[in-house]
Every structure is written in C-alpha cells, then in structure tokens.
Design a protein that fits this description.
Blueprint: H1 3-13, E1 16-26, E2 29-38, E3 41-42, E4 45-46, H2 51-67, E5 76-80, H3 91-95, E6 101-106, E7 109-119, E8 122-127, E9 130-135, E10 139-144
Parallel strand pairs: 2-5
Antiparallel strand pairs: 1-2, 3-4, 6-7, 6-10, 7-8, 8-9
Helix pairs in contact: 1-2
C-alpha cells in the first residue's frame, strides 16, 4: 500500500474524509499538511472537524510517517481542516463541496453560485436562480466562499 492510501485508511477510521495531503514550504520550514473534512452532513451542510479529531489523527499518522516519510530531511506534520473558504483544484474537491457556494473563473468571467451536483466531469451550479452546467476542465481557478 502507498502512503496516500494508508493515510486515507487512517482518516476514514475516524469517520473523516481526506481532502488533501501536500508538502508545502513556509519560510525555511517544510510542512506535510494533511487536510480533512467530516463525512457527516448536518442540515444539508458538512459538519466541522473538531480539534480532538485533528489531535487523534496526528497521533495515528505520525508513526506511519516515521516509517514512510513524505519527504527527505526535516519536516513538520500539520493536520487540520482546509477551512470554510478553500481552494478547489480537483474534481474530488468539487464533489466534496456539493451544497456549498463556489466562485470560479471561466475564460474572462468570474462566476459565483451554489454547487448543486457533480456528474462525471460536469459541474451543475445555481447561478442567479438558474441551474448552469460547466465542464470541470474549463475552470481556471475555483474556491468555496462563505456569505455572512
């Protein structure tokens, strides 16, 4: 099994879903960042991830990384939620964000709306009270956003 699939298994064991795992550099520090979201849906919205979940997951992942480090050299493990406003870079990110407000660029237009569903590589977004279909590959940059 690969490191990624092992991490997916550990995340799933806590009834969470892996959103992303990436090596990032901040200043002179290397960070292995694992972002998770809840599988639980409450009132049509995805539940939050607790600090206790993140701590428990850190304790589960850390020994695995001692055996299979994600990078050579020193790094710090960081486990958390990707946040309420987050980048959407993969089709899976969109699938995990159904029911949320999204903002994205398509050609020269900036579009904002509610992500209704994802079917294959098609995204269905409610824009100005109308359901509009978009092709995933046509989207330049996307993110979720929260309206206060």
């Amino acid at each position: 099994m690969s490191l990624h699939s092992d991490i997916v298994s550990l995340v799933s064991s806590l009834d969470l879903e892996l959103y992303d795992a990436a090596v990032v550099s901040e200043g002179d520090e290397t960070i292995y960042r694992v972002s998770v979201i809840s599988k639980e849906i409450v009132d049509g919205k995805r539940a939050g991830v607790s600090l206790e979940n993140c701590v428990e997951l850190t304790h589960l992942i850390s020994p695995l990384l001692d055996v299979t480090p994600p990078v050579s050299g020193e790094y710090r493990l960081e486990v958390g939620s990707p946040g309420i406003e987050r980048k959407l870079t993969t089709l899976d990110h969109f699938k995990m964000s159904v029911g949320e407000n999204i903002s994205f660029g398509k050609e020269k237009d900036k579009i904002r709306g509610l992500l209704q569903k994802v079917e294959g590589s098609k995204l269905f977004v409610v824009v100005d009270a109308e359901l509009v279909e978009f092709e995933f590959n046509d989207i330049k940059k996307a993110r979720t956003y929260f309206e206060w």
